[in-house]
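Researcher: We plan to redesign the surface later, but first we want a full-length starting point. Tokens attached.
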């Protein structure tokens, strides 16, 4: 089992910055990749950025050039630096951990509780 604790959300003005942090605990040795998703419209959760244990990043097109994902393996922590934030970035952001584990016909994923990011004047 993996537990994920998120921090760093809040309210920021357009053009501002926030840094999200997610600390993993439990069976952290099983984690292949971690990342951030946001709820999206109509409750369709979308992948924002991920990073593997080999530091290979992925970014959604909407955030390329503005967001940077990184990790501190020793601290079992992944960060999302969000710059030049836009009102459309407003959402609930969820930390995700992928242990690359197959169980009962599907992959197992772990999720944080979600943290609010609000971009508004």
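Model: Full-length starting sequence:
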């Amino acid at each position: 089992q993996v537990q994920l604790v998120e921090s760093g959300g809040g309210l920021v003005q357009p053009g501002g910055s926030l840094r999200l942090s997610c600390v993993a605990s439990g069976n952290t040795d099983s984690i292949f990749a971690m990342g951030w998703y946001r709820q999206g419209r109509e409750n369709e959760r979308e992948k924002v950025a991920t990073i593997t244990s080999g530091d290979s990043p992925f970014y959604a097109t909407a955030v390329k050039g503005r967001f940077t994902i990184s990790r501190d393996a020793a601290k079992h922590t992944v960060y999302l630096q969000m710059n030049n934030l836009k009102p459309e970035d407003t959402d609930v952001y969820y930390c995700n951990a992928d242990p690359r584990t197959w169980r009962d016909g599907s992959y197992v994923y772990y999720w944080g509780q979600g943290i609010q990011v609000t971009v508004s004047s």
